[in-house]
Each structure stands twice: as structure tokens, then as C-alpha cells.
Structures
1.
Amino acid sequence: MGQQIKPRLAKGTRDFSPADMNLRNYIFKTITGHFDRFGFEQIETPAIENLETLTGKYGDEGDQLIFKILNSGDYLSKADEDLLREKNSSALIPSISEKALKYDLTVPFARYVVLHRNEITFPFRRYQIQPVWRADRPQKGRYREFYQCDADVIGSNSLLLEVEFINLIHNVFKDLNISVKIKLNSRKILFGFCQAIGIENDFTSFTTILDKLDKKPWSELEGDFADAGFTADQIKSAKKLASVNGIELTEKSVARLSEEIPLTEIGEKGVEELKTIARYLGSSHAEVVELDLSLARGLNYYTGAIIEVKADKVDIGSVCGGGRYDDLTGIFGLPDTSGIGISFGIDRIYDILRSREESLQQTRPGKHVVFVNFGENEVKYSIDAVNSLRQAGVRSELYPDADKLKKQFKYADQKGASHVVTAGEAEIEKKEYRVKDLKTGEQWELSFDKMKNLLLKD
Amino acid sequence: MGQQIKPRLAKGTRDFSPADMNLRNYIFKTITGHFDRFGFEQIETPAIENLETLTGKYGDEGDQLIFKILNSGDYLSKADEDLLREKNSSALIPSISEKALKYDLTVPFARYVVLHRNEITFPFRRYQIQPVWRADRPQKGRYREFYQCDADVIGSNSLLLEVEFINLIHNVFKDLNISVKIKLNSRKILFGFCQAIGIENDFTSFTTILDKLDKKPWSELEGDFADAGFTADQIKSAKKLASVNGIELTEKSVARLSEEIPLTEIGEKGVEELKTIARYLGSSHAEVVELDLSLARGLNYYTGAIIEVKADKVDIGSVCGGGRYDDLTGIFGLPDTSGIGISFGIDRIYDILRSREESLQQTRPGKHVVFVNFGENEVKYSIDAVNSLRQAGVRSELYPDADKLKKQFKYADQKGASHVVTAGEAEIEKKEYRVKDLKTGEQWELSFDKMKNLLLKD
């Protein structure tokens, strides 16, 4: 195998060890359990997409951050010699790289929907939990390879779906025992406001600056707005808009916006939509769902309601977000297909739960028995018991070597086993097993059936 | 979003649609259920590894098939100008690519074990189910991105582990309802045989040719052996060796090898090991486990028992394979660490099950209710029922739009729903729901509680 190599992870990547996986699987299982109950179906798209499928969808900065895959074989054969001489890295990419790692789940999902449009039952409710890759500078809590967890319904513009997603989010975080606020706004209201104060041509720049409000104080944003060319009056209006937050979402609180905020027709349409959503929601989750006009969401494909979820008492940014879009699939040839989607921030949810002792307890598997190995004569007796316990569904192991007792007990302890079973000559003669509860220290000598019953008990 | 792009998959990659995912998740769940009961713990390693971690581990051909990732930013800045002028693709790789996609789960696992040696409880039982990537020429049933499903125990040379893996394999395929033969051989027997007939220096070439026996008839292999420089006598001996297959694995049948096959000391050690395994196994799975000296396994890191599993009555190659190795982690600085591992052929198992109607039935989710949408007045009545059913664990949907009844029933049918619920003015007045069983056509008018009981019944 050649010379020795130092074992290292690639920059910005992680290994997930067994304890990490237990917690991650618990989170995935909880979330997908709710997806299932809401009628969402799972799909997976490949890690590798054609570069042309991804390029141009995430802005210039995004294009830079897409990981490109070198063509295999003699990848330089078609490369332009002048460009090589100039060392023109970016102009050479198309001739040496056809494929790339996916940057998010959304664009490949749009590609999937168009490619499979004839097999799909619309409105299509799908979810997807897969890794994505970004050539970002790695830093604490930001990785180059990380999981996204998305749910979308595509092919209907019914506002009932906004309500469905709010219910879904509420159920998921309740089940995860994370207390949250679900913030709601409408891109139509934001756009109608910008039209009304005469900055509709700078809408993207407006929302990009507003979106920073959770990272910067308003005073700093004022400078950013001024730098972007907004007038003092416009900034004053924006401040009033942004001050509408933390308000209970009711038909009444939404209706009041038409009086308080300058809005054009499209803005009023946004108000009507939020009113309908509030009416459908009624009093459910009243303490959790908030109207927040300062919410902008960075992504420009949103065209209707936008949603963002913040965990209470934890300064960790948003743990879930999403919104309504009108034309996700147009670029691949299926225009005018409205949809709505959300994305759960798996890594942040993981960080919140990891810091809690009780969630780690919860995710540990139940009963787990390690049988001590006393050598070949005793092993045969134990193998049969181990296999029968497994048949009954109990996690069971026979320690593979006849090592010192102390070492075998240490193994059981470190693996988090709940019980250790010893069966030496004396026990074999009596057709029994000595079972020790590692938590309480209690011990019993039991027949196989009694041992099985003990281990199957909750 | 720029100009319109045709939706295409990258060559050799696949989308998994909901029906695919149901079957795949059923397979994963079945296998991991057994991993859990055998005390294996899950880990994940990143898709991206440093190129130096992978290079040189899979032979020259393998190195070619590793997908390399282009460095981000100005990747040509450090490239040698002479090499660029020569268009020397292979010599330039180290200067423009530091990272690669993992080629299998084994080498990153070895890297993981050495990197985390101080946190791991040895003997370490781990499993891993993740995609890997190979720049192979795509063809029917062979993909550039595919899943591997591996289980290993590292840090013990106990032969009990060989027995454990045979039991594990047996339980998994029994549960999947796939009838198989588990073939067993020992690389020590093969090596002892080669020593005895004087070809130990050509051991790799010998096993590589022998490994082709399931793809070519013996007559063709004879030509290959001759081309590789083996004498007629040696080929005759090899034929006798390879004829020992399809034999029930017992202490007796293994002991007979010492008389029938020329073996040196290391070969006799292999015989002793298989005898011990046969003794531990006793009569369990006697009809399934076979001795097969024609089994070679292509991979050169195996040093002890080797295992291969063939499905009966399906000409689909091996569905699982593995073996004992003595020095997987040496290259990363942890020498002399014996282990044993197996890999399940997920794609082949998937192909076998997909062709069976009953397995598709089995993997379909249970009760699934679609509520018809009659417009805003009726919707509120249905939303509450839908949410309460979900709370009770029933997969439930409210169709988002007040479309024609026919369209809504078609949606329910295409999504495989078991029941459709209609609640119009008449039902609302009576506080009831009209429930239709889509399979039998039966209909009932029920209160919410009675409907819930009906849907929770098996």
C-alpha cells in the first residue's frame, strides 16, 4: 500500500462517530416521522450534477463556491492552449470540468421535477435529506460538506399549504422539545412597500440589507441603506416597517398593516394572503406564530409568504426557514409552477440538542447485553443465547476474545451496555445465566426464558 | 436565472423517486435492524477526502477512477508552466486538485479508525451506509455514484467474528426473504496451496484469474493461467482445488482438505481456522453455508477467511462479500490490527426485490387518508380532523385546492392512498365524515372518533 500517510480529514469536513449518529438519526427520524404523517414522500438526487445545471443559479459568488469535478482521463486534451499559457483558471473550467457537487437541494429538485414531470402526481409533496457541498472558508459551525433537510409542495398556489407548513414546523419542534417562534412575512408586502416609497428597482438591494437585521443593530443598517443610495425619508419608512415584529398573527393584526404601512396593490394582495393564513390557523399555535415585517429572507426566488423559525433562549440564528415561490422550475422548461418549501437547519438543531443531557439519554438505544467470553467451552453455550436474544429483538453481543474479566466489563461499560451476562461452568451446569444490571449493580441467576423476559421488559 | 437549460442527469447517476425510496429504505431498515441487534454502531465519513488519503490504495487502475475535485479559486496559480505546455494531465493533478470523492468505504474507515483511535472502544463494531463514486464507464447496473453498505469488526482476531458475520448474513437474507448460499474459503489455504505447487510469487496473478471463475468457464481460465506462465501440472492442480465447491461446511469436510489438496504450513493453519468456524457454527444454517475453494475475492488485503454470498435462482453475481484482513490501518500508522468485514450489494438486492410484487406491497406505507377539499367553508372542519389524525400517527392530507372531485380522487389513487374522506355541508351538520376504502369501495359515515378507530385498526 505504499508509504505511510498521516490520517487527516479534508478541510471543512467531519466524521460522525456513533454518539453523533445516534443523535442525528434521532433528529432525522423525528422530522421524517412528521413528513410522513403530512403525506410527504422522500426522493434523492445524486451528489453529482452536470455543471451547467448548477451554474448561474446562485449568483456570481455562488458559482465560485461550487465544487467542480475534474474530467477523468486526459482532461487537458481539449483545453485551449492560449488559456493554458495565460493560466486563465476561470475561462478553462468549461473545458476541463463537466460535473460538480450539488450546492443545495433546491436546484437539483427543480431539475428533478421537470425531468420526471410525467411520472409525478401533482401537487407533489416531497422531502429530501442529503449532504450538499460549498467551497466556503471553513469556520466554527460552518462546513464545506453539510446536510440539508427540505420539504416542498409544488404545483398548487393554495394558501392552505402555508398553513400546512406552519403546522408541520410547530409539530416538529414540539416533538424535539425545542421552544421556537415561527415568524411570518410576505415578499408581496415587502415589494408593495418598496413600490409605494419609490424604490422598487432597488428591491433586491433593500431586502439584502434588511435581511442582515438579525446580525447587525438598526443603526448600522441605516448606514448600509444610505450607502446603497436610499434617502433619509425612505430609511425612516423602512424603520417603521421593520418595527412591526413580534406581533401575534391574527386577521386583525394583519388588517392593521394596510393603515400603518404604505403599500401598493401587490402589497395589499400580500396583506390579504396573510389574513387568509391567519383565518385558517385560527387560534392554534397563537403563542408561537408571529408577524414580522423585518423578515426578508436572502433568496430572491421567493414571491409570497416567507417563514423563519428562531429558537427561544438560544442565540443560534434560524433553525428553519422557507417560503412560497412562483417559478422555480422555469429555467428547466416548466414555467408558472407555484410551490412552497422549507428547510430545517439540521446542524443547528443538532447543536441545541447536543448541549442537553436528556436528549443524549433519549437517543441511546434501549437494552444492550454483552456476554462475557470464558473460552471455547463456555462460548458455545453463550452463542445460542445471544442469537436467541437477537431473534427476540434484544441488542446482544458475545465478547470475541477470552480476555481478562476487567477488560470485558470495561468494554461493556464504554459501549453503554445495560447488562452484562456471565455464564461459566457453574451456570452452564444449572442451565442458567448470571445477569448484571450495570446501572443498579443488581445481579440475578436466571434461566434463559427468565433472562429474556427481564431484557424485554421496559 | 439566465437561459433555459435542458434537465439532464450527469452520466452514470440516478434519481430515486418515492417508490424507489420506499424499497431502498425497507432494505436499509431491515439490514440496519440486524446490525443494531448484533451490537454494531453507525458512523459516517465525509464524501470528500484528501486526495493523498485515497491515492495508491486501489492500484493504478483504481487511481484513474477516483473523481478528483478541482481546487477552488485560481487553481492554476501553482501549476508548473512546462507541464501546462505539454498538456501533461496526470502530472498536473497534484498541483490543481487536493481533494477527491471517496472510492469505497474501506479506506476512509481505516483513516477514521486511526484518527479516532483514542475515542474508539475496541474491538470496534461499526457499520456504514453511504454513497461512493467511481469514474467507471457507465453500463447497465453499474453506476458512477452508488451506495455501499459495510460492517466491520476491527481489533480482534477471534474466529468467533467469522461466525458472527455468517449468522448476521443468514439473518439478513432470511428477513429479506432472499434464499442464498454463503460460500466460505480461506486466503491462507489458497496461499498454502500456491506455496506447495511453487507459485507463491505469482499469488496475486493466481487469485485474480481464479476470481473470474463465476464469469468464465474453466476452459477459458486454463488459457489465462497458461498465458500467465503457469505449467500444465500447476493448472491441473488448480483445477482440482477449484473443484472443491458446493460442499457442506463441517469439521469433517474441512479436515479432508489436508489430504486432498497440497498445502504448506500456512495452508494447514487455514484449514484449522475453517475447522474452528465449522465447530462453532455446529448444525446451524447447514443447508446454507458451503465450502468453496474456487472462491478467491479480488481484493488483496484479505489474509484469512473470505466469504461470498450468492442468491439462489437469480443470475446476478454476488449479493454480499467480505473477509478477514490483518493490516488495513497500517498505511495510516496503526499496524497489526486484525479485523473482518463484509459489504452488502445494495443495488443487486434492490434489483432482486424490485422484481417481486410482494416486496413492493410490503414497503408501501400503511393507512393513508386524503381529505377532499370542498372550499373554504368546509376546509376548516377538515383541517382539524386531519391534524388530529396525524397526532394519532395516521398519514393524512387535505387536498390543497377545491378542484373537481374526479381530480382529487385521482390524486388519492395515484399517491396510493388507502382512504378518501369527504365532509361537505351535510356531514358537517351531522358532525360526521364520509370515509371510503379505496380498495374495497366500502363507505361509512362516521363520527371523528369512529373514523380514527377505523384508520388505526390494522
Note: Chain A touches chain B through 114 residues (CB under 8 Å).
2.
Amino acid sequence: MKVLIVGAGAIGGFYGALLAKAGAQVSLVCRSDYAVVAECGIEIRSTLGEWQFEPAAVLREAGEVGESPDYVVLCTKVLPQIDRAALIKGAVGPDTAIVLIQNGVEIEEEIARAFPANELISGLAFVCTSRTAPGQVWHQAYGNLMLGNWPSGVGPRVSVLCELFESAGIKARAMEDIVAARWRKCVWNAPFNPLSVLSGGLYTSDILSTQESLVRQLMEEVCTIAAATGHPLSADVVDRNIADTRKMPPYKTSMLLDFEAGRPMETEAILGNAVRAGQREQVPVPHLETVYALMKLREYQQEQNARR
Amino acid sequence: MKVLIVGAGAIGGFYGALLAKAGAQVSLVCRSDYAVVAECGIEIRSTLGEWQFEPAAVLREAGEVGESPDYVVLCTKVLPQIDRAALIKGAVGPDTAIVLIQNGVEIEEEIARAFPANELISGLAFVCTSRTAPGQVWHQAYGNLMLGNWPSGVGPRVSVLCELFESAGIKARAMEDIVAARWRKCVWNAPFNPLSVLSGGLYTSDILSTQESLVRQLMEEVCTIAAATGHPLSADVVDRNIADTRKMPPYKTSMLLDFEAGRPMETEAILGNAVRAGQREQVPVPHLETVYALMKLREYQQEQNARR
């Protein structure tokens, strides 16, 4: 079983290491940390143990892979400035399954259009992991995956992948409707990620305790969009998200961590795509629209600052 | 003609100086800068000239005024933590007219309830003025006033006040419907003030060039509220505000200046009161609601920062 991970950051490094642990032959495409990772591999510090992940090969570009792998697993952030299809193109053969372990909603179609003949597997990671230094990944908590074929269904290659991850020690669920699962995750992400940035850096607990009503309105709008796109969520999804967040320790969202580090944020994948889906389906999403517009202003200001 | 100015900051210092210039006997209630102002008065640097404004008396509290003045002019910021009625109470006699030169919408009722027998004059200042040091006020541009009785009409004391200001060199318009004028000013304030803060410090020009659509939606909602409260604005008010803003030089809003200086912001007077009016009149104001909730989050974060 040959796997190529594209984007060997916190997510790609961690899940790649798990697949290798499970016996797959895992190579990495690694850009910024190439030198360190090519020499030493990736040191994994995890709730599952500590080990050195030594990839079969470390490449600068997907095209260097030689024989096409069984799976190409794309683990980059989803950003307008990243051409995801171009990143994987050189490694995708006629029998390669493309796997996305990425954030956001409606992020699959761009890839499906570029590779119409390939099997496409869409995946969600519920994980707290970070790249602490070049070649070092710290898996702090959680780790569950949801995987399913896009636009729907669970084929044999999804099952194989789930089994590999399970044998490495994490829960990997095969989902009949992975698109609905993306919308369900968006119910939490669409309010908390941007609100943590726009508030100037508040924890999820502070956001919830002071502006629960806005959080709920944003969540309800995501549910409305999901239903309009043919993926209705369960009626109690908002209440459950609120209750679960109340139980969490004070948490800094990934978008806030990116913002504070001056890194680009997944505003378009998480929020922009949701708003555009709402507009396309002609459901009113005024609260999401407002938060999205404010995030675009905040990004604009961040870019201006960076240029100074 | 005896006038007592309560709140001798940039606004109170400037308009008090103008009334003194016009021949009124003007005293000041001055808290933070008492020592300097009591000794030297206020130095005015203005487009109308430079002069030293020497008040008839400088008081620490309104109750020290002795004989009740003809006008008590309240020029503080409108903040939840400021009890405006208590600030002026000691100086308001049976024949005193109360004048508000303050920001916001629906800020009069609280005063009218506290002083039901007194004439109430509501006023709007279109002015760029700042307190550059204790006892120093810099009037940079504009200066027009709009004054009218609350809830409506123009009585003789409004006319007298307008004449005084006019004779001092600024335009003072007597307004039959000052409440509508407040809503008209809010059309500009409700988007640009909070957006400048939530964007992380953008100028009005940047906000308008990148998110005109959100600005328009917020403006339209203010118009809807104004109409629902019985003060319909002219149909082209949004277009005119957009066009006028486009002609302005890049401008930092007063709320942004307050925020950057760590001072409390007039979020409730400008935005909170508008949202509450919309909810009371049962008109949908989702964009304003969202921006208001985000401002409350930003304020909460600012307070937490200040406590550290």
C-alpha cells in the first residue's frame, strides 16, 4: 500500500506517521521543512506515544514520486493562494484515490473537476496537533477522523483507509454522507473561528458566555444552508454544539492561532464557502454575511500591516 | 445669559468657548483637568482663531453653581457608566433649559424622565476637535451644530442658542425634527465607527473600498429603524452618505481613536440603542445585531486586557 502525503505540517505529519505505523509505505511532499525532514524524518510526540516517523521518501514536489501511489492524501490548508490541484497533479495516476484531510465546506468540487476519473475521498480531522519545530509534530489531544467518498457513499478504499488508521490507534469512521459531516463541523467552526479573531483573541468559553445568542444565530444559519443543499442536520445540533463547547476547557481556535502568528486564515474555506452556498441556495444568511465581511476587513488590515 | 457646561473636554471646551465669545456668561464643570482649567482656563486653537477661554467659574460639581443657569449644556460621552442625570442635577433649576450636545440615538428619554418639567434641547455636533492636553483644545475642522427641542419643535430658547453660536462664527441650524437628524447621523456612525474598530484600525476609505456592500446594508437597516420610529429619512440618504464618504480624506473614526487610546467607546449610544429600537419596533436588523454583538465581544476583551 503506497501513500503520498502532500503537505507535511501538523496534520499531514501526524496522519502520515499513523499510516506508516500501520504498515503503509508512506512518502511525503514537504516544502518549507524539506531539509530537516529529508534527513531525520518527523519526530512525533503524541498521546499514542513518541516515535520517529521515517518516510519512504521525502520529496519537494509530487511529480518526483515515480510510480503513482494508491492514495494521495492532501493535508494543506485550504487557501485561495494555494492551487491544490496543481500541488498533487504530478502524483495522481489513473488508479490513485485522492484523499482530502482538510477544513471547510464545499472544498471537493475543485478537485473533482481537475481529476474527474479518480476516486475522491473527503475527510475531516478532529484533532489538536501542532508543528512545534521543523520535523517535530506534537499531537496534544483527540485525533478522530471521518472519511467518506465524495459526493457520498463508502467504497472499499475508504474502508481500507479507516482500518489502517484504526490499527494505528485512532478512531476513523466511514461516513455515508461526508458532505453532511462537513456542514456539521461547520456549525461549530463558522461562529467560533471568526469570533475568536474579531473579538481580539477571546477563548471559546468567553465568546459563549457573553454572546451565546450570536453564536446560536450563526449556527442556525449554517443548518439552514446545509438543509438547502440537501444535507439536513439533526434538530438538536445547535444545542449539542453549545452544550459541548460549555464542557470544553477555554480554547483558542485554529483561526485565532493562525491570526496571532500572522499566518493566512481559512476564512474562505470555512466562512466564505458557507456564505456563497447560502446565497446560491437563496437562503438568508445575514449574520454569517456580516461576520464574513468583517473577516475580510480584518484580513485586509492584516495584509496592510504586513506590507509596512 | 448664564450657561453651565458639564463635561469640559474637546466638545464642551470648544462650544463653551464659542458661547463665551458670543457674550454669554459661561461656567464649566470640569473633573479630570480641574486644576489646570481653574487656574488658566482653556486655550483654544481653532480654524476660527486662537484665544484663551476664561470661564466665569470652574466647578468640580454642578451643585456648586449657586444660582441656576439659563442653560445647562451636557457634553460628556454617553456611556453606561456615566449617570448623566446625576451629573447635572445640582444645577438644574425650574427655569433651566437642558441642552445635550452628545452622540447617539434615543439618548434623550433618560434625561426627560429625570427632569420632566424642564425644557430639553437636543443637539448634534459635526466637528473635528480634540483635547490635546489639560486645558488645551484643538478645533481642527468643521463645527456645525444642529439643535432642536425634544421630542420636536423649535422654541425661542433654541433660536437664542443658535444665534449665539452663529455670532461666534459657526453654523447652528434649528431643527424641527432633531430626532430624525440623530437617525440621519447614525446612518454614517453605525457602520463606520464599529467597522473601524472591528477591522483592526482601518480608515473609512479602506472600509468603503473593500466592503461597501456591508456598509450599505447597515445603513439601510438604520433607515428602516428610523422610519419605524416615525422619522423616515429621505430615499437617497444612503447613496449620499456613501458619496460623501468617498470624497472625504482617509478618516479615523472617533470610536477607533477611543479604542486605540484604551478609552471606553460609545457603543451603546450609537449601536446598542439603534439595535434596541429596531427590536422594539420589530424590524429585522441582523447586520446591526451582529456588529453590535461583535463590539460587545471586543469591549469584553479590552476590559480583560486592561485588568491584566
Note: The two ends of chain B are 49 Å apart (CA to CA).
